[in-house]
Each structure stands twice: as structure tokens, then as C-alpha cells.
Design goal:
By secondary structure, the chain is mainly alpha-helical. It has a single domain, classed as Lysozyme (Orthogonal Bundle). The chain has 8 helices and 2 strands. Strand 1 and strand 2 form a beta hairpin. Helix 1 crosses helix 2, helix 2 packs across helix 4 and helix 7 packs antiparallel against helix 8. The protein is elongated, with a radius of gyration of 17 Å.
Amino acid sequence: MPDRIALVTARLTSEEGFRADVYDDFDDTPIVLASGGSPTIGYGCRCRQWSRAFAAAVLGLQVTDVDTELRAYPWYTGIDEVRGSVLLDVAFNAGVSGLVNGYPKMVAAASAANWSAMAAECTDVNPAIDASRYAPLRQIILTGAA
């Protein structure tokens, strides 16, 4: 069985979709720099356009960072890989504090291995995001299958 990092990385690749050019995550519009130029970050990394392979490598590093932060919580380390991947998925998008503070009932249900309560709390206020992203996560929680 794959570990939760592999599960989430594969799922996020599909959920997020690949975009080679910089875009605004809020409204999905391309970001155009008025000055032109070639914006970089880190050690000269070009941030206007990435290859699919580079984006996948960065995603893996980001998911690993979130996983490392979550490993401070016994409710995360004590859960099976598949359901843990849902917690990791939510934390990737909401941040670890967003998961802990924004979904306290889901975390409590995960800690108690109450899958139906955990699934019921895995929601988003935006109906489109809830239907496209959180509904599949609820099924993963209920079935325990990736």
C-alpha cells in the first residue's frame, strides 16, 4: 500500500491540475507582470513557468513538509495511511493550523476512529469545492480505500 505522501501527491496532481504559467489561485487568471522580466525565487528558480516534472518535484517536497509538521499530532500518526492522506490533503490546502483550528470536529473524529463523523465534518462552505474536492475525500474516509 502506498504511503500517505504518495497518495496525496497523486490526488493533488489531479485535483489541482498542472499549469506551466503563473496564475492567481483565487480566480484562476494568469498573472501578467507589467515590467516583463523573469521573476525568480530561491536559488534562481524561474517562477513564471515550470515544467511538469519540476512542479511534481516541488509538490512532493511541499506535501512532505506538511506531513512532517502533522507528525507532531498523535491523531495523525495513529491513523491508517489512506484516511491520514485525507488529513494531509486538507492540511496542504488549508494549512496545518487551518486543519487543526478549522476542522476540530473532523480531527476529534479521526482521533476516535469515527469514520462517519470524520466524513460528515470533511466539508467546504463553497458548494462547488465541496462537490468536486471534498465529496471524494468523504468517500475515502468512509471506505478507507484510495
